[in-house]
Each structure stands twice: as C-alpha cells, then as structure tokens.
Amino acid sequence: MKAIWNNTVVAESNDTIVVEGNHYFPPQSVKKDLLKDSSTHTHCPWKGEASYYTIQAGGQENKDAAWYYPNPKEAAKQIKGYVAFWRGVKVEQS
C-alpha cells in the first residue's frame, strides 16, 4: 500500500494493518522527514489516545493528516506506533 499526498509518497508498505477501514502503516515505512508533530490528540473508547502529525510536502502543509497510537489500549496493541492517514491523503495499492 502507498499513502500519497501532494504527489508525494508519504508511506509505503506491504504490511499495513487494517482497522475500521483505515490502513495503519508500520513506523519504519513512513517518511518521518515529511511529518511534523502536532499538539492535537483525540480519544477512542477502545483504542485509546491518538496523536497526530502534520504532513509537509511540496511546500504545503496538511494539518493533522496522519495519526497514531503511541500507547494504545490492549484491544489495539497491534497498531502501536503505526501511522494512518486521512484529510485528502490517498491510500492505494502499490
């Protein structure tokens, strides 16, 4: 799978984990140089607290377009540190 935003591949992996229709990419498959930490956090009743990244690519920013669970609840432990995308990021087959 590939995550693409602003004509830039942000992540690519054959080992994503699909949860609630979202592909979560392994941390090592994500181009961290394109991500900036965000102060945004949200809470999921069964996954726990999510943290966000802003994507910076091609001279533009996509605020809070990626999220991950640094310390998920037991039910979501398989996605710890994995990164998912939204807000116009296209996730497609490689």
TrEMBL record:
Residues 1-87 form the DUF427 domain. Pfam families: NTP_transf_9 (PF04248). This is DUF427 domain-containing protein. It comes from Rhodocytophaga aerolata.
